[in-house]
Design brief:
Radius of gyration: 12 Å
Number of helices: 2
Number of strands: 5
Strand content: 15-25%
Shape: globular
Largest sheet: 3 strands, parallel
Oligomer: single chain
């Protein structure tokens, strides 16, 4: 499964993301690509973090590609 985000991800995207993540069957591999994002709402980040924690119990392999931050 591949989940790619647009440059702006707000709290309005939360219900859709929640349903996508809930529908992923056990034993799957999931790639979450946020490399193009300029803004991600904190509750979206928290949802992905929670999924990464709980996915282990469902034997879901998760790879989360985050944007590169230039400091």
């Amino acid at each position: 499964y591949l989940i790619k985000f647009r440059p702006e991800v707000s709290f309005l995207n939360k219900p859709v993301l929640k349903s996508y993540l809930a529908a992923i069957p056990a034993g799957s591999t999931v790639y979450i690509d946020t490399t193009r994002c300029r803004f991600i709402a904190s509750d979206i980040n928290e949802m992905i973090e929670d999924f990464s924690t709980t996915s282990y119990a469902r034997e879901i392999r998760l790879e989360w590609r985050k944007p590169v931050v230039n400091e």
